[in-house]
Design brief:
Elements lengths: L9 E2 L32 E2 L2 H5 L25 E3 L7 H11 L2 E6 L5 H8 L4 E5 L21 E6 L1 H9 L4 E4 L7
């Protein structure tokens, strides 16, 4: 069974080709885990309707304008939408160690970061149905979707309960077993 879980605020992209926005045009965007983002915008913000139903958070180390949230001390209940870059593992470890928060991640369940920081340490997971549309810094909704499945990861029973109460469309998992 799992232990603790995390969350996300300022989602930042991995480069790649996303799905089309309904008009048949493929757009570069959040999507490929095999090719990290090396250009273009990395600022993709959490859809406000996700945060609104999860309750109050005390800290958001990846909020707009935050300075090096990875190196500073985190306080209370944390919302984490980490940059989806080569430091993702560091953000997840820090949230797992903190033990009180929710993270928004791509559901890349096969990656080392997911295995070590989510499967082995989280309290609950909510795999979202459908694909998110992140928002730009100006608040407008991105034209294309995130390009991959997303999951909310909870660390701590209070955050697992928040996922349960949220009514966000998805599949909630509160118990799983690791095979060595």
């Amino acid at each position: 069974m799992a232990g603790i879980c995390d969350g996300a605020s300022l989602g930042q992209s991995a480069a790649g080709w996303g799905e089309d926005g309904g008009d048949g045009v493929k757009r570069a965007g959040i999507g490929s885990h095999t090719k990290p983002n090396v250009g273009g915008s990395v600022e993709w913000f959490t859809p406000p309707e996700i945060i609104a139903v999860l309750g109050r958070f005390d800290d958001d180390p990846c909020r707009p304008g935050a300075t090096d949230g990875l190196s500073r001390k985190w306080n209370g209940r944390v919302w984490l939408n980490p940059p989806y870059d080569r430091k993702l593992h560091n953000w997840l470890w820090k949230l797992a160690d903190h033990g009180n928060g929710i993270a928004l991640l791509f559901a890349r369940t096969e990656t080392r970061s997911f295995v070590e920081c989510v499967w082995q340490r989280a309290t609950a997971l909510l795999f979202l149905h459908g694909r998110l549309h992140f928002h730009r810094a100006d608040g407008s909704r991105a034209d294309g979707n995130a390009g991959g499945p997303s999951v909310l990861v909870a660390y701590g029973e209070n955050n697992a309960d928040a996922l349960s109460r949220s009514r966000i469309r998805g599949t909630l998992i509160r118990q799983w077993f690791q095979r060595p």
